[in-house]
Design brief:
By secondary structure, this protein is an alpha+beta fold. The chain has a single domain (about 5-120), classed as 2-Layer Sandwich (Heat Shock Protein 90). The protein contains three helices and five strands. A five-stranded antiparallel β-sheet has the order 1-2-3-5-4, with helices on one face. Helix 1 packs antiparallel against helix 2 and helix 2 runs antiparallel to helix 3. The radius of gyration is 14 Å and the shape is globular. The two termini are about 20 Å apart.
Length: about 120
């Protein structure tokens, strides 16, 4: 059963990072990897708050030697696989950062929600 937390506004992000960090540590993820996971989830949740309505939720669980985290919202699918934006670009680094720090990133588009699933080895 995954651990779940919802978020609605930007002020929820600190609690979301703490939730993700605590659950990842409890599942045996080393602290330096926990920091990467918290950064990735924060970037995805920020993207939700900027580009979707209704907030989102996070599901987190472990399978074998991986920690899996779904960031779910009602926004449109995300475009991954892009190069890192130029240093002087005003936007666009968040999703590129997520791809670089996670072992795997997948987008699961459904009729009523979009799931970005990230995986990091424990």
């Amino acid at each position: 059963m995954p651990d779940t937390m919802a978020y609605q506004v930007a002020t929820d992000l600190r609690a979301l990072r703490a939730f993700v960090s605590a659950r990842a540590l409890a599942r045996g993820m080393p602290p330096h990897r926990v920091e990467l996971l918290a950064l990735a989830v924060s970037e995805l949740a920020t993207n939700t708050l900027q580009h979707a309505t209704g907030g989102g939720r996070v599901h987190l669980w472990a399978e074998a030697d991986q920690l899996i985290c779904d960031v779910i919202d009602q926004g449109a699918g995300r475009a991954f696989g892009r190069d890192m934006p130029a240093a002087d670009a005003a936007r666009g680094r968040g999703l590129a950062i997520v791809e670089q720090i996670c072992d795997e990133v997948a987008v699961l588009d459904g009729p009523e929600e979009t799931v970005v699933r990230i995986r990091l080895g424990l």
